Amino acid sequence: MIKIALVEDDSAFRTEISQYLERYSAEKGEKLEVSVFTDGDEIAIGYKAKYDIILLDIQMRFMDGLTAAREIRRRDEEVIIIFVTNSPQYAISGYEVNALDYILKPVNYYALSKTLDRAFSRIKRQEKKYIFISNQQGTKKIEEGRILYVEVNGHNLIYHTLEGDFGAVGSMTAVEESLDEESFFRCNKCFLVNLEHVDAVEGDDVIVKGTPVQLSRSKKKLIMDAMNAYLARRT
Question: Is residue 158 within a helix (H) or strand (E), and if so which, with residue range?
């Protein structure tokens, strides 16, 4: 379920946007939980980072949307902010708080739905996936995005992560099948790297967070294609 905060001081616009969100939910088959606020101070003061998307009016009586967005960003870097405004002159302010987009009033359903499509795509990309690594010491839960690369030596695996190295028993084939194929690339029979943490390709090495990882010559073009495709999905 996607949690949306609607911050709007005009009751007519609140009703209209709420109806549009209900329509979007029905058309897309997405479950939405919508919380309504009538001014920026209501959401910004004591803000709790529990929303996925905030639809934020800019011109409000007690706390304007930009001030509220600044306060929200102090506590939540991930929430998607979409400004709703009477004037496009405020759009430039969105860059300051990393807003996804702005929608002009009167709100058009088509414009809102397209912006929500972009927001939902970003949310799905940001969803965290986990794997479990088991060894003699027990089982550890690790987020995929925290893995730098995986190394195999015989039946012994080493997961090199941002938290350190963790050993396990298994095959590289099984590891490769368990991880996101669009985010991880098999450099050779011994190494599987997370494209998120690749800094460069230099000669016969892939540089992962400053560490050189051997790359098969036959895979140089393939990894560049994989990196370009990965970056395209992230933008």
Answer: strand 156-161
Q: Are residues 15 and 113 in the same domain?
A: yes
Give burial (CB, 10 Å; 0-12/13-18/19+) of 203: exposed
Q: 28 lies in which domain range?
A: 2-126
Domain co-membership, 105 together with 141: no
Q: Strands of 184-186's sheet, edge to edge?
A: 164-169, 156-161, 147-153, 191-194, 184-186
- Answering whether pTM is above 0.70, one says no
Whether residues 108 and 56 share a domain: the answer is yes
The total number of structural domains that make up the chain: 2
pLDDT by residue (tens digit) across 36-67?
999 989 999 988 889 999 999 888 889 888 89
Domain boundary among 126, 151, 179: 126
Give dist(CA 126, CA 144) in Å, integer: 12
- Residue 61, judged by CB atoms within 10 A of its CB (0-12, 13-18, 19+), counts as exposed
Q: What stretch of H or E contains 25?
A: helix 11-28
pLDDT in tens, 142-180: 888 899 999 998 889 999 999 899 999 889 999 998 888
